C-alpha cells in the first residue's frame, strides 16, 4: 500500500492540489517501510489522479480537496481522507493505528471526507 500525503514542510497541507510537495509512504504489514518526498508536478484537472495512480498510491491524506478531484481519484480506486491537519509523520502513524480523526475539508470546498481502505464513509465533522 502507498499513502500520499499533501505536504507543506513537515505538516499536512491544507489543499491537496496546491501543496508544495507530496510525501509518499510505502506500507507493508501495517508499518512504514519507505518514505519519499516529491515536488508537486502541477495542478491540472485530472493529472494528479493519473500520476499518483501510476506511482501505486491507493490512499490520499490532505487538509482539503474539492469534490471533483475526489471523484477523479475514486475513478482510479484511490481513496481520500480530508479534513486532516498536523505533522505528517504523526498523521500517518494515527492512520495506520486506526485512530486518525478527519473532518470537513480544510480548503472550504464544503465536502465531507471519505476514510481510506478499512475505514467506512462518514458524513459529519469531528471536533479537534
Overall form = globular
What is the third-level CATH name, the topology?
Nucleotidyltransferase, domain 5
Helix content: 10-25%
Return Rg in Å.
13 Å
The proportion of residues in beta strands is: 25-35%
What structural class do the secondary elements suggest? alpha/beta
- SS summary, helix count: 3
Order of helices and strands: EEEEHEHEH
Average pLDDT rating: 83
Report the major sheet. 6 strands, mixed
Number of domains: 1
Low-confidence stretches: 109-128
The CATH H-level superfamily is Dinitrogenase iron-molybdenum cofactor biosynthesis domain
Detailed description of the structure:
- It is a single chain.
- This protein is of the alpha/beta class and 128 residues long.
- The chain has a single domain, classed as 2-Layer Sandwich (Nucleotidyltransferase, domain 5).
- 21% of the residues lie in helices and 25% in strands.
- It is built from 3 helices and 6 strands, in the order E-E-E-E-H-E-H-E-H.
- Strands 1, 2, 3, 4, 5 and 6 form a 6-stranded mixed β-sheet that branches.
- Strand 1 and strand 2 form a beta hairpin.
Amino acid at each position: 500500500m502507498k499513502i500520499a500525503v499533501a505536504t507543506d514542510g513537515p505538516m499536512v497541507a491544507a489543499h491537496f492540489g496546491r501543496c508544495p510537495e507530496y510525501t509518499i509512504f510505502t506500507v507493508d504489514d501495517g508499518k512504514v517501510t519507505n518514505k519519499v518526498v516529491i515536488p508537486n508536478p502541477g495542478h491540472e484537472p485530472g493529472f494528479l489522479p493519473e500520476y499518483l495512480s501510476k506511482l501505486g498510491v491507493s490512499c490520499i491524506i490532505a487538509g482539503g480537496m474539492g469534490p471533483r478531484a475526489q471523484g477523479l481519484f475514486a475513478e482510479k480506486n484511490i481513496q481520500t481522507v480530508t479534513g486532516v491537519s498536523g505533522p505528517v509523520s504523526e498523521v500517518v502513524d494515527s492512520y495506520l493505528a486506526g485512530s486518525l480523526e478527519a473532518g470537513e475539508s480544510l480548503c472550504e470546498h464544503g465536502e465531507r471526507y471519505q476514510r481510506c481502505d478499512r475505514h467506512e464513509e462518514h458524513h459529519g465533522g469531528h471536533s479537534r
